[in-house]
Design a protein that fits this description.
The complex is a heterodimer of chains A (about 450) and B (about 800). Chain A is of the alpha/beta class. Chain A is built from 18 helices and eight strands. Chain B has five domains: about 5-75, Ubiquitin-like (UB roll) (Roll), CATH 3.10.20; about 135-280, 2-Layer Sandwich (Alpha-Beta Plaits), CATH 3.30.70.20; about 310-360 and about 515-580 and about 620-640 and about 650-660 and about 705-760, Rossmann fold; about 365-510, Dimethylsulfoxide Reductase, domain 2 (3-Layer(aba) Sandwich); about 670-700, no CATH class. The radius of gyration of chain B is 28 Å and the shape is globular. Classes of the chains: A alpha/beta (about 450), B alpha/beta (about 800).
Chain lengths: ~450, ~800
C-alpha cells in the first residue's frame, strides 16, 4: 500500500478525508458524508447539473470531457432504464489516483454515484473495478453494504421516494475495458471490446439504456463540489479547467506519491518542489506526464501548467495524471520497449492496426534492445506508429503509437546508438528464423 | 426514409438517409474495400480498410459505420487513404503465411486482391511469423490460423445468421484467434472441434483461405474448374449451388459446391447439403451399365440397345396382353419438371394407364384446391425474406428447409418481422418467434379447427389451451401474414387452416415439401387422379388431345396391393425407392416385371428385372419447382460415362415400344431453345444425339432427348405454368400458381414426410460420403476414425 504524502501546495478537496478512517461509514458521516446527496435530493436534477457545469469539472479519466455537459446529454425520458457507471478500471501505467480514493474514501464514490443517478434519473449504478484491484473491491463492497444497512441505498433513499441501487463488479484484467464502451461490454458479461460510436453511451449504453459513465475520481469529486458550490470549485483551477486533481508522481523523485494539486499547477514545480526533486541528486532525463500513453517531455519542456489545454499545447496530454519521472540512468530504449510491451499485451486484437502494429513494434524494439537492430528499424518503428495513429478502432492504438513516436523522435539518437553499437553486424535474418517463418 | 444528397469523389450521389456510406457508394459504382464489412451482419469497423476522408471530420472515418448525411463531402481514394490501406495490408501480411500457391482461396482471395490493388509488397520484418498448426474442426471445416485476418465474418455468420453461435474469439491482441465451441479439454482427442449445423457458411464468408472445406481442400485450383450454377437437389427450398466441375477420364467430376457469387434466390445462404452433398454423384457405388435379370436370377450387364429393346418389347407385350391398367408407374421427387411431365404422359398415352404416383411429401393437391380461384395468395420464396409477419404451423424449417429458416431469421433480424410458431415440438425457430404455441400431440387438426372458429377444439389444440386466445388474436391482428405450413397438415386440416388464413386479407400461403422437385412432381401430374396442373382425370381439359384413360388410376400403395394380388403386370420406377420408403413387402413384386431407372442399387432396384443407370439432377438440364412454386433452371454440371438422363431413357423405351416419339416429345419444331444447356462441355451426348437422329432420318433440330423439346407443351397445356422462357434461361426464378380446379372427391392421405434432417437426404443421402462423415461426427465418433470426404 502506498503511504500517504502531503505538501503545503496541495488543495485538499477529494483527498480531504484521506487517512481519517472514512472507509468506515460512521466516520464518513462525521466528515460531512452523505450530506451532498441529501442536498441533491432537495434541490433536484437541474440544480445538480447546473452546479456541475459551473464547476468546470472535466473528466478525470484522461479525455477531459466536461462532466456537467455529459450528464445533460442523457435524455430525460427513456423507455429503457438509465444507468450510472463508475469507471474504476484504472490501468494506465503510472496512474494510481483512483486507487487511493477506493482505499481511503470509498463512500465518496458511493455518494457520487447516487448524485449522478439523481442528476440523470437513473435508478441503478455500477461501480466497476479493474480486475487487479480485487483487494479494493472488498472495501467498496463493504461501503455499499453499509450504505444499504443505513438505508441510504435501496428503496426510498432518504425519504425521497426515489429508489437507487448500486452493484459492484470486478473486471477480469484488461486495460482495454477502461474504454467506456468496452467496460459496458465487459459489465454485460461479454468480451471487453469497444463498441462502435455513435451511438454514444448517453443515448445507448449499458444494456441499451442511456448511461452516464464517469471516472472514479470524477465521481468522487461530485459530493465535494455540491457542498462547496460549483463556482467555488472552479475558482481553484485554471481557466476552463476547474478544481483540483490527484497527481500520482512516481519514478526517480525524492517523495513519490499521490498529491492533490490545483489544475494548472506547474509540472516542474510538482516534480522539484512537491515531489522533492530528482532522487539522489541525479539529472532529469525525461518526464512522462500523464500516464504511459502521453508523449514524453524533455527536461527543457516541463515548465508547463498541468491542465488539459496547456499540456495539449506542449504536445503531450494531461492524461490520467500519472507523472513518471526518469533520471539519467534510464535507458529510453528499454523504457519504450516496456511501454509498447504493455500496449501489445493489452491490445484487445479487435482492429488490425493496433493488434498487428503493437506486436511488430514490440518485436522490433526487442531486437534493437537485444543488440540485433538494423539501420531501418528506427524508421520502421516510426512508420508503424505513424500508420497506427488515428487509424484504430479505439484510442488504445493511439495510446501505443503516441509515446512510441515521442520516444523515437526525441531520443532517436539513443535508438541509433543501440543499433550501431552492434557494429559486428549480428546477422539480421538467422537461419532458424528463416526455417521458422512460414 | 427521405433521400439525402452528398458528394463522393466529386460525384453527386443521392441515397436514402440512414444508408451506410459504403453501401451508398457501391450503388453509385464506387467500390470501397473492406474485409470485415458484410451486408446484413452487424458492423465491426475492425479491418480499417474502408477508411475514407470526410470533410470536417478530424480523422479518417470508416465508411462501413458512417451513415450518409445531407451535404457530406467524401473522398474515397486519396494518397492519404491509399497509404492507410496499404499500411493495414502490410500489417496483415506481416504475419500472413503467404502460402497462396497451395491455398484453397488462391485466386479467390480478397486479401490477394487488395494486395494486388494497393501494392503492399514490401516486408519490413525479420522476426518469424506467428505460426499455428492447422486445425480440423469437423469433417467439413478446417481452420488455418495463420491465414486468418480476424475479420469476424465467420463469427457473425454463425451467430447472427445461423443462430448457432459455434464460433468465438479467444485470447486477445496478436494472440486473438477464432475458436470453435468444443474446447480441446472437452474433446476426446484434445483438439478443438465444432458442434454445429455444419453449414459451412463460415467458409463462404471467409475472405481468405483461413476456413476451408473438408470436401474440397487441396483438390484443385479455382481456375481449373468450370463453375456451373444449378439448383440444389436436396430439399424443397430450391437454393442455387455453384458446382465446380473438373474433367476426369470417365466424365466430369464435381469437386466443389459453394455459394460464392450469391446470385441465387438463396442470397448468402447455403446449407450443409447444398455445399458438400454433391459427392453422391462421384460415388463408386453408382450403376454405370444397364443390367438385365437372367432366368437364373443374376443381373447381367448388357448394352443399352439390348436393355431398351428388352424393356420396350416386354412393356408393349404386357400392355397389349394384360392392358395398360395392369401397369404401374412411379416417378421421383428429383426429376425435372420436363421428365415428370414426360413420364406421366408416357404412362397415360403410351402405356395407357393412370396408375401414376410418386412419394408425396406434402399435400399439394389439397393446397392448390383450397386456393382454387384465388390470385396472388401463394407465397414465393422471396416473400419469406421480407414479409412483415410469418406464421409457421407445423414443419421444422431449420432441419427440413434450412434456407427457409435462414430467410425467416434474417427477416426477423433485419426487418423486425414478427414470427409466430405453432408446433408440437420446440423447434429452433421459436427462438426468433414473437410467440410460440406448443401444439398438443397430433393436435394440428384441432388447431386448424380452432383457428377456423371452432372453440371446442381448443382443448386438443395446444398443450396449454389458455395460450390459444392470445396467439390467435396476435395472428389475426396481422395485416400481411405469410402462413408457412408443414407437411403435417393435410386434407381437411390443411383446407381448414387455409380457410382461416383467407380471412386475413393480406395472407399468403406456402406448403413445405422435402425434395428439390417434390412440388414439380405434383404439379406435373405424377398422381393417379390428377393430370398436370391438378387437372382432375375425368375432365382432362387441355389434355383432351392426349386421349387419356378416363378412370383415375391406382395410387402408390394400391399399385403394390395390385402387385401382391397378381394384378400388376409391370412396374416402371423412375428415380424413386418406394420399397424402402413405404416399407412395401418385396415379395409383392415377384410376379411383376419391374424396370427401375436409378443411380444406385437401392432396395427397389434390387427387385428389378431391368436396371437402367440414371443421371442425377446435377447431370441434366431442365427446370424444377421448389416448395413455394418457384420455377428455376437446372444446368448440367457433372457427367458420368455409362449413365443417361431419365428423359432420354423414357423416350428410348417409348421408341422401342413402337410409340410415336414425335407425339410424345414434340421435337423438331419451334425455336431451337436449348442454347447448349443440355450438353455439358465434356459430354459426348451431342454426338450421340446426332448419330441417333441421322440413323432415324430425323431433322437435327431439337433432339427428342432434349427436355426443352417438351417445355413448349408444358407451357401451353399446364394451367398456371405460364412461364417466361427468357426469365428461365437467364437463371431467374419465376413464381407460378397452378390453377387447380376446386376440390374433387375425398382422397386418401398418402403423404409421407421424408423425416430428413440437416444431414440426411432420402436414399440419395446414404450415398454421400460427406453426409455420412458428418452424421458419424455429430454422433460423437472421434474425427480421426472418420474417413473424411476429402480423402
Amino acid at each position: 500500500m502506498p503511504t500517504l504524502v502531503s505538501h503545503p501546495d496541495e488543495v485538499k478537496v477529494i483527498s480531504r478525508r484521506f487517512g481519517q478512517g472514512a472507509a468506515d461509514i460512521d466516520r464518513y458521516l462525521e466528515l460531512d458524508g452523505y450530506k451532498a446527496v441529501q442536498k441533491a435530493i432537495a434541490e433536484g436534477p437541474d440544480w445538480i447539473i447546473n452546479v456541475m457545469k459551473a464547476s468546470g469539472l472535466r473528466g478525470r479519466g484522461g479525455a477531459g470531457f466536461p462532466t456537467g455537459l455529459k450528464w445533460s446529454f442523457v435524455p430525460k425520458q427513456s423507455e429503457k432504464p438509465k444507468y450510472v457507471l463508475v469507471n474504476g478500471d484504472e490501468s494506465e501505467p503510472g496512474t494510481c489516483k483512483d486507487h487511493v480514493i477506493f482505499l481511503h474514501d470509498p463512500h465518496a464514490i458511493v455518494e457520487g454515484t447516487m448524485i449522478a443517478g439523481l442528476a440523470i434519473g437513473a435508478k441503478m449504478g455500477f461501480i466497476y473495478l479493474r480486475g487487479e484491484y480485487r483487494y479494493l473491491l472488498k472495501i467498496v463492497e463493504k461501503a455499499v453494504a453499509d450504505a444499504y444497512a443505513k438505508g441510504f441505498l435501496g428503496k426510498n433513499i432518504f425519504g425521497s421516494g426515489i429508489d437507487f441501487d448500486i452493484v459492484t463488479q470486478s473486471g477480469a484484467g484488461a486495460y482495454e475495458v477502461g474504454e467506456e464502451s468496452a467496460l459496458m461490454e465487459s459489465l454485460e458479461g461479454k468480451r471487453g471490446v469497444p463498441r462502435i460510436k455513435p451511438p454514444f453511451p448517453a443515448v445507448v449504453g449499458l444494456y441499451g439504456g442511456p448511461t452516464v459513465i464517469n471516472n472514479a475520481e470524477t465521481i468522487a469529486s461530485v459530493p465535494h463540489i455540491l457542498l462547496m458550490g460549483g463556482e467555488e470549485y472552479a475558482k481553484i483551477g485554471s481557466e476552463r479547467n476547474g478544481g483540483t486533481r490527484l497527481f500520482g508522481i512516481s519514478g526517480h523523485v525524492e517523495r513519490p506519491g499521490v498529491y492533490e494539486l490545483p489544475m494548472g499547477y506547474n509540472l516542474k514545480k510538482a516534480i522539484y518542489d512537491v515531489a522533492g526533486g530528482i532522487k539522489d541528486g541525479k539529472k532529469l532525463k525525461a518526464v512522462v506526464p500523464g500516464g504511459s500513453s502521453c508523449p514524453v517531455l524533455l527536461p527543457e519542456e516541463i515548465d508547463v501548467g498541468l491542465d488539459f489545454d496547456q499540456m495539449g499545447k506542449a504536445g503531450t496530454m494531461l492524461g490520467s495524471g500519472g507523472i513518471v519521472v526518469l533520471d539519467e540512468t534510464v535507458s529510453i530504449v528499454e523504457f519504450a520497449l516496456r511501454t509498447i510491451s504493455f500496449y501489445q499485451h493489452e491490445s484487445c486484437g479487435w482492429c488490425i492496426p493496433c493488434r498487428e502494429g503493437t506486436d511488430w513494434i514490440k518485436k522490433t524494439m526487442t531486437r534493437i534492445y537485444n543488440g540485433g537492430g538494423n539501420k531501418k528499424d528506427a524508421a520502421n518503428i516510426q512508420y508503424l506508429a505513424e500508420n497506427m495513429m488515428g487509424r484504430t478502432f479505439c484510442p488504445l492504438g493511439d495510446a501505443a503509437a503516441m509515446p512510441t513516436l515521442g520516444f523515437i523522435k526525441k531520443f532517436r539518437k539513443e535508438f541509433e546508438e543501440y543499433i550501431e553499437g552492434n557494429k559486428a553486424g549480428t546477422p539480421i535474418i538467422t537461419v532458424q528464423q528463416l526455417v521458422g517463418a512460414h | 426514409m427521405a433521400d439525402v444528397t452528398f458528394t463522393v469523389d466529386g460525384k453527386q450521389i443521392t441515397a436514402p438517409a440512414g444508408t451506410l456510406l459504403i453501401d451508398a457508394c457501391k450503388s453509385a459504382g464506387i467500390e470501397i474495400p473492406a474485409f470485415c464489412y458484410y451486408p446484413g451482419l452487424s458492423l465491426q469497423a475492425a479491418c480499417r480498410m474502408c477508411v475514407v476522408r470526410i470533410e470536417k471530420m478530424p480523422k479518417l472515418a470508416t465508411a462501413c459505420t458512417t451513415t450518409v448525411a445531407e451535404g457530406m463531402v467524401v473522398a474515397t481514394e486519396t494518397p492519404e487513404i491509399t497509404q492507410a490501406r496499404k499500411a493495414t495490408l502490410q500489417l496483415l501480411l506481416g504475419n500472413h503465411p503467404l502460402d497462396c500457391p497451395v491455398c484453397d482461396a488462391g485466386g479467390e482471395c480478397e486479401l490477394q486482391d487488395m494486395t494486388f490493388k494497393y501494392g503492399a509488397a514490401d516486408s519490413f520484418y525479420t522476426e518469424p511469423k506467428n505460426h499455428r498448426e492447422e486445425q480440423n474442426w469437423s469433417p467439413v471445416v478446417y481452420f488455418d490460423r495463420p491465414r486468418c485476418i480476424l475479420c469476424y465474418r465467420c463469427v457473425r455468420m454463425c451467430g447472427e445468421g445461423m443462430d448457432v453461435f459455434a464460433l468465438g474469439i479467444q485470447n486477445r491482441g496478436s494472440s486473438a484467434v477464432i475458436a470453435p465451441n468444443i474446447a480441446p479439454s472437452l474433446s476426446p482427442d484434445n483438439l478443438a472441434h465444432l458442434d454445429c449445423e455444419q453449414c459451412g457458411m463460415c467458409i463462404d464468408a471467409c475472405p481468405v483461405g483461413a476456413l476451408t472445406s473438408g470436401a474440397y481442400r487441396y483438390k484443385t485450383r479455382p481456375w481449373e474448374m468450370n463453375h456451373v450454377t444449378t439448383v440444389c437437389t436436396h430439399c424443397g427450398d430450391g437454393c442455387k449451388t455453384t458446382l465446380g466441375v473438373r474433367s476426369t477420364s470417365d466424365g466430369a467430376e464435381i469437386v466443389r459446391g459453394d455459394n460464392r457469387d450469391k446470385s441465387g434466390i438463396n442470397g448468402d445462404f447455403l446449407c450443409n447439403k447444398g455445399r458438400y452433398a454433391f459427392d453422391f454423384a462421384n460415388s463408386q457405388e453408382r450403376i454405370t451399365t444397364p443390367l438385365v435379370r437372367q432366368p437364373n436370377g443374376d443381373l447381367k450387364p448388357v448394352s443399352w440397345e439390348e436393355a431398351f429393346t428388352v424393356a420396350g418389347k416386354k412393356l408393349r407385350e404386357l400392355r397389349d396382353t394384360r392392358g395398360g391398367k395392369s401397369i404401374g408407374v412411379i416417378g421421383g421427387n428429383r426429376l425435372t419438371n420436363e421428365e415428370a411431365y414426360l413420364l406421366q404422359k408416357f404412362a397415360r398415352t403410351v402405356l395407357g394407364t393412370n396408375n401414376v404416383d410418386h412419394h408425396r411429401t406434402a399435400d399439394y393437391v389439397t393446397f392448390t384446391q383450397a386456393l382454387a380461384g384465388q390470385k396472388g395468395r401463394t407465397a414465393s420464396w422471396n416473400d419469406t425474406k421480407s414479409y412483415p409477419a410469418v406464421l409457421i404451423v407445423g414443419g421444422d424449417p431449420t432441419n427440413q428447409a434450412p434456407g427457409t429458416a435462414w430467410n425467416l431469421r434474417s427477416d426477423v433480424r433485419l426487418n423486425k418481422a414478427r414470427l409466430y410458431v405453432a408446433n408440437t415440438s420446440e423447434i429452433k425457430l421459436r427462438r426468433q418467434a414473437r410467440a410460440f404455441l406448443q401444439v398438443a400431440p397430433f393436435g394440428y387438426g384441432a388447431l386448424a379447427g380452432y383457428l377456423a372458429g371452432d372453440a371446442s377444439a381448443a382443448s386438443n389444440a395446444a398443450l396449454d389451451p389458455t395460450a390459444l386466445g392470445g396467439f390467435l388474436e396476435a395472428v389475426k391482428g396481422e395485416e400481411k401474414l405469410l402462413i408457412l405450413i408443414g407437411s403435417e397438415l393435410r386434407g381437411a386440416d390443411l383446407k381448414r387452416l387455409i380457410e382461416f388464413g383467407l380471412t386475413i386479407p393480406g395472407a399468403k400461403f406456402a406448403l413445405l415439401s422435402d425434395y428439390a422437385n417434390s412440388r414439380g412432381a405434383a404439379d406435373m401430374g405424377l398422381l393417379p387422379d390428377m393430370l398436370p396442373g391438378y387437372t382432375p382425370v375425368p375432365t382432362p381439359g387441355p389434355f383432351t388431345e392426349h386421349n387419356i384413360p378416363s378412370e383415375p388410376g391406382l395410387d402408390l400403395l394400391e399399385i403394390f396391393d395390385a402387385a401382391a394380388a397378381g394384378n400388376l403386370s409391370a412396374l416402371y420406377v423412375v428415380n424413386s425407392n418406394p420399397v424402402a420408403r413405404y416399407g412395401v413387402d418385396p415379395a409383392a413384386l415377384k410376379d411383376t416385371f419391374v424396370i427401375v431407372q436409378e443411380m444406385f442399387l437401392t432396395e427397389t432396384a434390387q427387385l428389378a428385372d431391368i436396371i437402367l443407370p440414371a443421371a442425377n439432377l446435377y447431370e441434366k438440364s431442365g427446370s424444377v419447382t421448389n416448395s413455394y412454386g418457384d420455377l428455376q433452371l437446372v444446368q448440367k454440371a457433372g457427367d458420368r460415362s455409362g449413365v443417361r438422363s431419365d428423359f432420354e431413357m423414357i423416350v428410348r423405351i417409348a421408341d422401342k415400344m413402337g410409340a410415336d416419339v414425335k407425339a410424345l416429345v414434340p421435337f423438331g419444331k419451334g425455336l431451337r431453345a436449348d442454347m447448349g444447356q443440355s450438353r455439358g462441355a465434356q459430354s459426348g451426348e451431342a454426338d450421340r444425339h446426332a448419330v441417333w437422329l441421322t440413323a432415324n432420318n430425323l431433322e437435327p433440330k431439337l433432339s427428342p432427348f432434349d427436355p426443352w423439346a417438351i417445355l413448349d407443351e408444358i407451357q401451353r397445356l399446364v394451367p398456371g405454368y405460364d412461364l417466361l422462357r427468357l426469365q428461365l434461361l437467364s437463371g431467374n426464378d419465376q413464381h407460378l400458381e397452378p390453377a387447380a380446379a376446386a376440390a374433387t372427391a375425398s382422397r386418401r392421405d398418402l403423404v409421407l414426410p421424408s423425416g430428413d434432417g440437416l444431414f440426411t437426404s432420402g436414399t440419395l443421402g446414404r450415398f454421400s460420403p460427406a453426409l455420412n462423415d458428418v452424421q458419424r461426427y455429430q454422433a460423437g465418433e472421434p474425427l480421426i476414425q472418420i474417413q473424411t470426404a476429402a480423402d
